[in-house]
Amino acid sequence: MSRESASERAISANHKQVAQIFLRPTVWLNRAIISIAEMCLRPITRLFGSNIATPSGQVDKILVFDPGGLGDMMLLLPFLQNLRACFPGSRVTLLGNISAGDYLLECGMIDESIEFRVPWRHASRWKRLNPFSLCWLRFLGNVFRLRKQRFDLAFAAGWGGDFRGNLVIWLAGAERRVGYAYGRGGFLLTDIAQPDLAHPHVADRNLHLLDRMGLPLLSHGETLTISPEDERQAAE
Length: 236
Known about the structure:
By secondary structure, the protein is an alpha/beta fold. Helices cover 48% and strands 12% of the residues. The chain has helices at residues 2-22, 31-47, 70-86, 98-107, 119-122, 125-129, 134-145, 163-171, 202-212, 228-235, and strands spanning 61-66, 91-96, 112-115, 153-156, 176-180, 191-193. A 6-stranded parallel β-sheet has the order 3-2-1-4-5-6, sandwiched between helices. Helix 3 packs across helix 4 and helix 3 (70-86) runs parallel beside helix 9 (202-212). The chain is globular, with a radius of gyration of 19 Å.
């Protein structure tokens, strides 16, 4: 019995150690700036009503924010497959790296890919820390234009899972917003997912966003589909 207990404790400690690696968003490096941003944003969000999710109705338009590259899109694939299964008639828009979204368009996992350059990935450190730089002004202009699409549902997915992703889907004006709050910014969401320390991998974290909404997981990810033309080119 004591051996089993020691083994269970070791596994639990290992899970927590792994979770600290995967669930440590880079936003903590700038936690002072994030704290100031939260203090400024909280009064503004109150003007727009409560962040409590209303009962889900018709979901016509879905926004998925993930600014990662092609490899990140592969980790997002199981999430998108389940999202398609749960909302087969909805239009799914991916906000992020447009070149990475091309493959997902070909597979039919998304209906639209919008290129979205975020300051924390595509700007120098000085510009990232300067709220009055042109990169931030362009960022705000681009994200506010998304409000015209009136998204019913939005997810902050990918490696970030922090304040920045939550801010994007809030600024985009989505009615229901699902994400994590371990990297701050929970007040920007309507549905806050709790991290599963036993499954900290980013693909599992993405899937857990659907679980937070009470949606069933119908697929754990299929093999990648390659067209005959791609196979021919590869052979050549």
